[in-house]
Amino acid sequence: MGNKATVGLALLAVVSGGALAQPSAALYGIIDVGVQWNKQYAADSNQRESLWSIDSGYQSGSRFGVRGFESLGGAFAAIYQLEGGIDVSTGQSTQGGLLFGRQAWVGLQGGFGQLVAGRLATPSSGTGSFDMWGAIDPFAAGFGVNATGSTFIAANALREDNAVLYVTPLLAGLKVAAGYSFNRGGSETTPQDSNSSAVNLAASFSAGAFYAALTYDILSYPEGGSATANAGNPDQRLLQLGGTLDLKVVKLHGAWANQDNISAVRAGVSIAPPAGVNAYDNQAWMLGASMPVGRGSLMASYQYANGSSISYASAAGTATFDPDYQVWGLGYSYPFSLRTNFYLGYGQVSAKGTLDSTQVDRQQAAMGLRYRF
């Protein structure tokens, strides 16, 4: 019996050692679904319309994914991640129906940092594996219209196809990232200047209770004369700066953005310029706070988007385009367990400047349940 036990333990050690030497992979995800109420102007009338609905992804976009690594010897490892968005209310894929629309990449990591390529969420986006911005937002880039993505263009989940990104290791609290996309949406085409490329730069710094992030994205468009949509548009230049200070009883959040040459508008953020205006500039601000209340967390913020005032010729004569609007919101999250929480949220978007209320005015409220696995 003693010899059999010894042989059994030896075999177990061999099998266990082999298992530990295998590549590591983990399945993960978020299921977020709740009841939502929205009140805004209908597209075909001048009346406010209310809508009650079951919606997915109010606090965090619902998703599933797999991530992992394989040691390549020494300090080097191969790393990868595939992540798809899900609309839990319908079972459909989000991000335009892409299977892995949230992110899909593979790369290397080691003492030099990380070098990856694929479909990536930018460090400025508020989401993804290399995000530096989400911590700036009291709502962690979620809670519907309350997120900084309502006024900060890059922070509205900016994702890019055909991208490569390098991220340094954390050194004395500092991390830096630099990336490039050969074509932000879809496969590259010839000639080279028919693609919409991008440059992405970012840095974050943490020291004790203080955290700060600086991001800069240059979104280019095809050369004029190309048949591609938005050809000839000027480069959009998106600079974001933000920080937090954790005082324990309350965490303070603040951010500012300078956003030049806004022309091709992304859904959910910024205003399309009228005919006669090619592009305009915009600055955005956010002030917010988050604090523990009971076992949960209370969050609040105020945002303002201040567009440049431009005079242009319209059918009625000289007109002024001054696309200003404000956003304020409240939210509360209560944890039932380490994986499951209940949330409540309310937000309001209001037109300012020369915008009329049919363009942006909106009220939004939601309550729901989020489960992480």
Topology, please?
Elements: H1 2-21, E1 24-41, E2 48-56, E3 63-73, E4 76-87, E5 92-93, E6 103-110, E7 113-121, E8 159-167, E9 174-181, E10 198-207, E11 210-219, E12 236-246, E13 251-262, E14 280-293, E15 296-307, E16 310-314, E17 317-321, E18 323-335, E19 340-353, H2 357-360, E20 362-372
Antiparallel strand pairs: 1-2, 1-3, 1-20, 3-4, 4-5, 4-6, 6-7, 7-8, 8-9, 9-10, 10-11, 11-12, 12-13, 13-14, 14-15, 15-18, 16-17, 18-19, 19-20
What does this structure look like?
With 373 residues, this protein is mostly beta strands. It has one domain: Porin (Beta Barrel), CATH 2.40.160.10. 6% of the residues lie in helices and 54% in strands. A 16-stranded antiparallel barrel has the order 1-3-4-6-7-8-9-10-11-12-13-14-15-18-19-20. The relative contact order is 0.13.
